[in-house]
Design brief:
There is one protein chain. The chain is mainly beta. It has one domain: Rieske Iron-sulfur Protein (3-layer Sandwich), CATH 2.102.10. Helices cover 0% and strands 41% of the residues. The two termini are 21 Å apart.
Length: 110
């Protein structure tokens, strides 16, 4: 996906009317993959990499704000990013903060 620069700091990721529960879109920023996703009416931007063994998370399942890695089954709280079982993984999910501008959601790169 090509990122659209609206002004010097805002990078648009998607138009709001395109979003729905279950929406996922992978994009690259500075050589790293991120996922824009909507679950239970809330938008998240998380690294497309499980902090356990760096498996891609684009096919992870989410239920009741719990994200489950499709490769190793490790579960993370989507509100905090923390693993539910710290013995299986000691690192949290990486998030980017989203901002809204007009009818779009994106990132502030400043």
């Amino acid at each position: 996906m090509a990122l659209v620069v609206k002004n010097m700091s805002f990078v648009a990721l998607e138009k709001l009317h395109q979003l729905y529960d279950g929406y996922r879109r992978v994009f690259r920023l500075d050589g790293r993959e991120w996922i824009l996703m909507q679950e239970e009416g809330r938008l998240y931007c998380i690294a497309n990499q499980c902090p356990h063994l760096q498996a891609p998370l684009v096919r992870a399942t989410v239920s009741s704000k719990i994200l489950r890695c499709p490769f190793h089954g490790i579960e993370f709280d989507m509100r905090t990013g923390m693993p539910l079982n710290p013995l299986s993984c000691r690192h949290a999910l990486s998030f980017l903060p989203l901002i809204y501008e007009g009818n779009q959601v994106g990132l502030d790169l400043n």
